Amino acid sequence: MTSNELTIELKxxxxxxxxxxxxxxxxxxxxxxxxxxxxxxxxxxxxNKIEDYKIYxxxxxxxxxxxxxxxxxxxxxxKKIENNAFDYRVKIKVSRENNTYxxxxxxxxxxxxxxxxxxxxxxxxxxxxxxxxxxxxxxxTELVECIQENIESFFAIKNFGARQNKGFGSFTVKKINGTxxxxxxxxxxxxxxxxxxxxxxxxxxxxKIVAIYKYPxxxxxxxxxxxxxxxxxxxxxxxxxxxxxxxxxxxxxLQDTIDIFKKHYxxxxxxxxxxxxxxxxxxxxxxxxxxxxxxxxSLKEAYNKKTSNSENLYDNLECRKENKxxxxxxxxxxxxxxFIRPLLGLGTGFNxxxxxxxxxxxxxxxxxxxxxxxxxxxxxxxxxxxxxxxxYMICYETxxxxxxxxxSFKPSLNKKDKYANLKLDKISDLEVPSDFNIKEFLxxxxxxxxxxxxxxxxxxx
Length: 461
Hints:
With 461 residues, the chain is of the alpha+beta class. The chain contains 14 helices and 15 strands. Strand 9 and strand 10 form a beta hairpin. The protein starts with a strand and ends in a 5-residue tail after the last strand.
């Protein structure tokens, strides 16, 4: 093996979900891996300093740069090529198929499509492999050495394929050039956090890792995925009894396991699981209420404008007595509402349950962003990595909402509702908080969960 070549053996921890799943050997794709690795190297290996990595870029021309220096246009030239790819090739080879996982079944469906139905379930079956080999080649010996030094850290914070932020597509480095890598991930993550301190949030660097947590219990992979599904929902929107329901064809196999998980979340002496969103509770302490009550009240107004029916829509929407206590300390006019849920990932809409189960749900679809610089898509700042069946929570600070974001909402009735044909007025808009502190939120919330900190940057950056 030459110094221009690197052979890396990977270990796969969770299924990778992508459109080629039916093909033999469907695994990591070079078209996804290489751009991610390029971006990682520019930041972590070269501190985003193009002067240090320009010679390794495809298309870099030293003679042309020297001509541009004479014209005092070097900055323009470097800006033009700074996003070019690094000059190396990647080949991926797999063998020894391990298992096939049906993503339409519990627990995977909780993270893939929530509780939505699946049509042709065969298209949701994904494979894992025991042997996955990367071969990296470059004429730049120093670049190969740089990749070798950083590849373990790269795979420790990156997943691949669909739903990767929820732990799917997790790989780590097993061997490099035939040498076993028995990585101490706690130490690796601490070193990464130390590196992150030097980076500031700006237009080029829109996020940085500020904390990493670990679930300290050894589970099998199914339990790890299930743990992520329930804990993330508890953080963002809260848990109810319905989250522990199983399809009839799953009950015999999974009921005992689900009962154990349900017991973990259920309050003592309570008949059902009901855990309010930890994000909602975090903002309640700041005397800010989240969007759910605001939307319900607005729905009532929009609904009553369209019908003289004496039925009170707001009262028909399911509401817990425990939640009413949160609003008893001030009048409706005195309350401050914000659109809070996007802080942990921007969804497409809301479903509100009616007390009368037969009348279906009331759906509110996010209509559009009213901001001058709108965010159309936003991933959660919490990124899950599964390693040897243990969930890790990698937490990012982001500047995504530093500019005020306002959203309006378009209500839509479920088809089962007797007023489904009503064209309801648009609901008034809400702002997303611009001062969200992910570290503070998690430090307060982790008491409710069993995750332990691997490292937290408390440098004030």
